[in-house]
Amino acid sequence: MGKIETIKFTGENGKEMTFEIIADLTYEDYNYLILRPLKKYDDLDPDQAIVFRVESTVDGDTYIIEENDEIIDAIEEIYNSEL
Most CB contacts within 10 A, which of 17, 31, 46, 62? Predict the structure, then answer.
């Protein structure tokens, strides 16, 4: 079994959260990450996958939770087709 690839964020409350990277996909010229929390954080359940849009700037990458259901469905479809 391989090592889990993870990414860490600092939440609004200042607490660090660690996510497993499930997939790294491109859709309509944007990069997206499908992430799953490694443990329960407030309203985030470890069984819940979350889609983040990655926006790259000169200052580094910004990760934004995708809220558009059509985009989330498209990302899910791409992910499932690659399995």
Answer: 17
DSSP assignment of 4-57 equals PPEEEEE-TTS-EEEEEEEEEEEETTEEEEEEEESS-BTTB-TT--EEEEEEEE
Rounded to two decimals, what is the model's pTM? 0.85
Query: How many domains does one find in the chain?
Result: 1
Residue 1 within a domain? no
The distance between the two most distant Cα atoms of the chain, rounded to a whole number of Å, is: 37
CA dist., res. 55 & res. 76, Å (int)? 19
Range of the domain at 49: 6-82
Per-residue pLDDT of 8-57, as tens digits, reads 988 778 888 899 999 999 999 999 999 999 888 777 777 889 999 999 88
